[in-house]
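sorry for the late reply, my laptop died twice this morning and i had to redo everyting from scratch. anyway the thing you sent over, i finally got around to it. pasting the sequence first so we're on the same page, its 303 residues, then the predicted structure underneath. double check i copied it right bc i was rushing
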Amino acid sequence: MKLQQLKYVIEVVACGSINEAARRLYVSQPSLSKAIKELEQELGIIIFTRTSTGITLSTDGAEFLGYARQVVEQAELLERRYFNTAPSEQLFSVSTQHYAFAVNAFVGMIKKHGEDKYQFTLRETRTYEIIEDVKNLRSEIGILYVSSFNEKVMLQLLKEQGLDFHVLFEAKPHIFVSSQNPLAKKASVTLEELEEFPRLTFEQGEYNSFYYSEEIFSTLPCKKSIQVSDRATLFNLLIGLNGYTISTGILSEDLNGSNIVSVPLEEGELITVGWVVNKKTQLSRIAKLYLEELKQIIDYYMA
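ok and here's the structure:
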């Protein structure tokens, strides 16, 4: 087993394709495939499952990847300490529901720890895709919420997919509205007071189950409902249509401006936001740094 083979596996996972990994590594596709095949034979495991539609990481491969990342990171630390070598390109990806604090933490992590070369990915995406990304190691970390309504289903699903859920924080539900909305100046609002305003939610595509919804109380009937796919559009509609959305109450003025405000919702329910990780992997150094930044951001806004 060679260090270069470990780097090959890490790159293939990051690219999701042997062809793309070969292009980025400046090696031929047959050479890369051969190196990985030899590694699999030496270890006696299948790292990648090959199908007509591409490759996916096997269960054994997911476990191997965690160790490979640690070995490569430690080797690079040794090289930089004793041979003064330049750091290699850092790799990290996170998939998240549409939370500003997840973006804030991503920005903070890069400012503090991003070196000369890195390839980071932040995916604000649908709930089902977050789970798939972490399951297939397209992302190291996923960020999503559970409530009393969906907790049993979601935690069972995560368990079936080989993922662990770690709580970040609990929050009482709030609404986000335009600063010009009649509800913006209220100390709190009730669900009944929201009935005449358009409810904005993030659409979940073909997996449009209430359990996958990003918004609490999604099962309640609503006279005016609009689904969107991104946070910028949602905020524009909050302003343009005097709509509302329900979230954690954590709002970043740096990213979202001062046109959107948060108002507590008079309901006893709690929103539990957490991060998910594949059970078979060990977190990379960058993933740990991102989680540290995430916790600092949350502590700041919830203080």
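The two ends are 49 Å apart (CA to CA).
thats about all i looked at so far, will dig more tmrw
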